Every structure is written in structure tokens, then in C-alpha cells.
User: Fold TetR family transcriptional regulator from Pandoraea aquatica.
Amino acid sequence: MRRPRGRPAQGTGVTRDAILTTALTLLDESESGGKGLSMRALANRLGVTPMSLYHHVEDYAGLLRALSDTVYADVLKDIEAGLACHEEVREILIRYHAAVRRHPQLTLAIFATPAAFAGVTREITDRLTGLLQTMTTEPLLWRDILIDHAHGSGLPVARDDDAPAAPPPDDHDYRRALDCLLSALGPRRQ
Amino acid sequence: MRRPRGRPAQGTGVTRDAILTTALTLLDESESGGKGLSMRALANRLGVTPMSLYHHVEDYAGLLRALSDTVYADVLKDIEAGLACHEEVREILIRYHAAVRRHPQLTLAIFATPAAFAGVTREITDRLTGLLQTMTTEPLLWRDILIDHAHGSGLPVARDDDAPAAPPPDDHDYRRALDCLLSALGPRRQ
DNA sequence: ACCTGAACACCGTTCAAGT
DNA sequence: ACCTGAACACCGTTCAAGT
Assistant:
């Protein structure tokens, strides 16, 4: 009952930007499969009531959609003009993988919240599909293979025989695997 | 206050088997990214107090581990003897993908609960690694690619341009993609 | 327009108490 | 050994009430 009931005098409220920034921080701080972010914990961190968040985002799924739109915003942006299809696919996937790897808990949260899938991610898959159509007779097959691999390779699933919390492969390892896949997709006998 | 306080007279309690079976049912019924299963909902469905479950499973992560052990139990079982490496890898992955596809919500729940990863799944990855060592100079790379693809292809992520809840590709589609990958891994120029 | 408290229907898990 | 109710510290979201 510290704070008054109605609207505060000055701009003591939250911004949409502040919400998104703090939400991403909460997500990045946790290691619990996307469970680190909750509306209540987020409001708490912002020094605000949970309900005030609903004036800036639609709901929890909407919050995740907004987050993914900002995190993946640069994937398709300013791609060098006149690139060969092969190189453009490579560039997009390297950027996408880097974004997944930077915020793996966001990707896991989206996995757990089907309604959060939309926006930029759809544009990325569409762009990849278009490019792959000129490169292989099975564009949808390879688009799925490449995206699945970018996800799996960017997410912290314990899979190696070493430490249970082994970090995902770094960018260099991803590039190596990606080139492996792209050269398989490209010209090959049979 | 209907039921008496102490231990019931007869075997009105729950079995570990009943717990696992009902848990899998709850998971399969839901479409919410592995959120359909909770200790409380499970106890409710079994007509029992939430706390009674803790006498049969360690906790929520332990429940998921037990579930994955039963769901993936048959993946390595009774593999035909004298199979070529190539064929054995193919058989294991087809079975693994089928299990993921049968209970996608379990896989999503495990993704969201890192502590749930263990047991049979580790045996499967180890077996695959061993086989791939005789097939390629990059066994770990290809093991990850193949498992990531089995996951992605078995999970209901909205990714296609069609219906948002489009079903994952069926077994035939997976086999086609898998053969695509395996022939890329196999002998190829350069 | 924006924030509030109270409420509803949920969570996982601990703990002492029963038989 | 196994189940219980009560409790603690959480969830997302609705709703009427404030300014």
C-alpha cells in the first residue's frame, strides 16, 4: 500500500522498451528452459504491478512475440546485394544461429508457447525457402534441415559426453557444420 | 475432507505405472508446449493428493526422466544383427523420430526442464556416435545434425506457410529427408 | 490512458501428522 | 510405507476501482 492507487503523477510507469529490455535480461539470466521469464517476476523487477504490463503487451505470448521480433530483427537486414544464393543462405543462417545462441532461453520459451510464433521468424523461413528453390529440387526438405540444425546447434541441450551443462558450439563450429550441410545440398553425384 | 487422513485400508493408492501412464495421457492430450502435464493436474486425474506422487517419483524432472525412459525404451532394442552401419543408423533414427513424433509434448517438456535429460537418450546418442565414427571423419558433427533433424521434424512447431497447427511430416517424409542426409554424409566428391 | 489491489484458478515442493 | 491437509512461494489473467 506504499504506492498510491491511481495513475502516478509523473512518468513513473513503464515503457514498452523497458519491458522488452528487462524481459530479455531475465531470460538471459536463467538456465531453466525458458522458465526464467514470468509476467510477475518481470513486473517485480520493473517495480510495478503485474497488471500494468498488460497495457503495453497483449499477454505473455505477445511479450515473447515482441521479444523475438527485436532479437531476430537484424537477420534479414542489409544483406549485401548481388550475393550468390549459396552465399546469401549461408549469411542468413549464420546470423540466425548467432541470434538463437545469444538468447537461447527465448527460443526455448517460444518452443513452450506455440502462440508466440510469428512475425520476423516467418519472414526468415520464407526468404530461405525462396533462395533454396533455385538451389535444390527439395527446398522445403533442406529449409527444415537447415533451420532445425541452427536451432539444435544454438540451444543448450545436454548431449555431449562431457559436462552436463556443456556450452553450445561456438560460431566457428557452427560454420563448419553449415558448410558441411550446404556442400551436401549442392552439387553431388547420384 | 472426504477421504480419511492416514493410509487407506486397501490399495486405493497409486502405482508408479499408473502415474507414468496417466502422465503420458495428460501430455498427449495437450497442445501447449509441454505445459499440459503438472504434478497437481496429474494427482487430480489419479484421484489423489499431489504430495502422494512424491512417494513414487523424485520430483517433476524425475517424472519426465521416467517417462522418457519408457517412451524411448525400444529405440535400441532388438536391432537386427549383422546390419551395415549405414542401415543401423537409419533404423535407430527412424525409431527415435517415431517416438518423438508419438509424444512430441514429452520432448517439449524435457526441453523446458534441463534436469530431465538423462537415461536412455544418452545411450542412443552414444550408440549413434560409435556407428558414425566408422562412416565419416566428422561423427559428432553428423550425430548432432541427425538428432537435431529428428527432433525438429517430429515436433509441432508452426513453420509451414499453411495452417498454423500443421502436423509434422509423417514417417514417409522423414525417411525421405533422412536418406537425403545419409547419402550426403556418405561417399561424396571433394 | 495508465496503474492499482483483490480475486480466481492455477503451479512445485516441504513438512508434520496420521495409520 | 504411504497418504493426508496445511502451508509457502510462486504462476497468468480478469475486473472494478482509482486518477
Notes: The mean pLDDT of chain B is 88. Residues 72-183 of chain B form one domain. The CA atoms of residues 98 and 171 of chain B lie 7 Å apart. Residues 1, 3-8, 12-14, 48-49, 51-52, 55-56 of chain B lie near DNA strand D (CB under 10 Å from a C1').
